[in-house]
From TrEMBL:
This is Peroxidase. Belongs to the peroxidase family. Ascorbate peroxidase subfamily. The active site is at residue 65. GO terms for molecular function: heme binding; lactoperoxidase activity; metal ion binding.
Amino acid sequence: MGSYNFCIAVLVMFNLSFMGISTSLNPYFYAKVCPQALPTIKQVVGAAVKQERRVGASLLRLHFHDCFVNGCDASILLDSTSAFTSEKNALPNANSARGFEVIDRIKYEVDKVCGWPVVSCADILAVAARDSVVALGGPSWEVQLGRRDSTTASESKANNDIPSPFMDLPELINSFKKQGLNVKDLVALSGGHTLGLSQCRLFKNRIYNETNIDPNFAHQGRATCPPNGGDSKLAPLDPSPASFDTNYFSNLVSKKGLLHSDQALYNGGQTDYLVKTYSKNYGAFSKDFASSMIKMGNIKPLTGKRGQIRLDCKKVN
Ligand code: HEM
Ligand SMILES: *[C@@H]1O[C@H](CO)[C@@H](O)[C@H](O)[C@H]1NC(C)=O
């Protein structure tokens, strides 16, 4: 940035903050305007996770799939309109992304407790992801707030920018790099797969055809996942899919990664050492996971007067 542009940027930021419009996120965004917002989100997430443990995993994934497509702007929540097709139809989300009803319930309860719609759907996704991790035994962190909601969505960007489970390490690194996330963020955040389940169709080729896999693990997998059909049958991404722990990483070290992209992180490449470290050190994993979640949550937020606070997370106002 030239010094002239820099001066302009500083002036714009000064003016916006003078007008009471924030241009960056902060953890206290709703502290004055609705102090009950965050406790309410925590309560609804807690009740939902108690009813179905997996929904915590699903909510964590929704925030990831939101942030990787044009930033954390709740674009993933929008249904199709005449102007765009929903990101819910994109390959990584169709018949896969879930937890939308919990987001709608949170939005309803938060708007009720606040008395008016002040909390964005994008912030709800970020806080629900944190509260889900906490509910399943993982670390907590201070969620940065003040994101606003998009007025559009992009199915094609969702197809292009959300990484695929068939990627190798260089492609995964590249996909995260495009979001401003580094190799450590990639490995730490992939640790999200300490939670939740995957459908057969996404790991079938791995358990039938790949060689960097523990033979007993492959054998077990084939029992739940037949070579033909059964594509939506489910298997856990690690042996303890409802607990945030290091089993995902120790599993990779023993060649028991479920997805091709999981095992790619421990396959003789540059990320082996990080996987090994996290497999033995819960403290290091949980600390790095929390900082990378904050970093992911900061991807291209809409702030100030950009975007809107949706009344219904599924629809543009
Ligand atoms: C590194 C690239 C990644 C790839 C290729 C990937 C791919 C996948 C796939 C294929 C599934 C199974 C979906 C299904 O069966 O319908 C899945 C599930 C999941 N992913 Fe990822 N993922 C990645 C990174 C992440 C990140 C960064 C997070 C969060 C921090 C995350 C959180 C989850 C969770 C929690 C589930 C389970 C969801 C549930 O049970 O509903 N993933 N992922
Ligand atoms: C295994 O690989 C072969 C050859 O690429 C392919 O035709 C087949 O569909 C694969 N099997 C599974 C279960 O994915």
